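Incident log, support desk, overnight shift.

02:14 A customer reports that sequence design results differ from what the structure should imply. Their input is reproduced verbatim below. On-call engineer (initials T.W.) acknowledged and began investigating.
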């Protein structure tokens, strides 16, 4: 009888911890808005200099999380983003880079803190559709730039199936012999199905 009581007590103690991670389990979708800081190496006469621009970004995302331990969550996520007014021009506006849109796929690992907050890190693949303009040539050309990104954030449950998150990301894309960099701060709202 005493061993049954101890077993019941142990099971009761484990249930809340398990349900914490499970509150972030399953499929979800959301919308996000935020800030970009893009940096691109562009020709500046005979040399190259890094030009940068701040802009607004918006997008959508969807993913799936799975609770692998009491407070540990692993997941995958895909997203699509469009920047607004993010064209970067070189000296004298001779050359410009305009990121039209980007998509990404990533994995994330998180730890549930408190009753309803998930702190996580993220990393994955990113692809940006870029329009390159050169006034010395006619028109423009469009390229897809492959890259990678890392980041981290916090997601907090607001009500049963709705959560809000704040996240930082660093992207790096292959761009000619140099790299195009993007820093982002994103705020999102998710619905978990």
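02:41 Re-run completed on a clean worker. Output:
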């Amino acid at each position: 009888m005493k061993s049954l009581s101890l077993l019941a007590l142990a099971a009761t103690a484990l249930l809340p911890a398990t349900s914490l991670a499970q509150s972030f389990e399953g499929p979800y979708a959301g919308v996000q808005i935020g800030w970009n800081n893009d940096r691109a190496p562009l020709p500046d006469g005979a040399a190259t200099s890094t030009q940068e621009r701040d802009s607004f970004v918006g997008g959508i995302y969807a993913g799936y999380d799975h609770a692998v331990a009491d407070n540990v969550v692993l997941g995958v996520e895909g997203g699509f983003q469009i920047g607004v007014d993010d064209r970067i021009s070189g000296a004298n506006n001779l050359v410009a880079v305009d990121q039209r849109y980007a998509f990404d796929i990533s994995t994330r690992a998180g730890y549930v803190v408190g009753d309803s907050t998930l702190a996580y890190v993220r990393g994955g693949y990113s692809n940006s559709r870029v329009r390159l303009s050169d006034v010395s040539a006619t028109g423009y050309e469009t390229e897809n730039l492959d890259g990678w990104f890392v980041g981290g954030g916090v997601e907090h449950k607001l009500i049963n199936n709705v959560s809000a998150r704040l996240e930082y990301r660093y992207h790096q894309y292959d761009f000619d012999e140099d790299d195009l960099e993007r820093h982002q701060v994103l705020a999102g709202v998710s619905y978990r199905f």
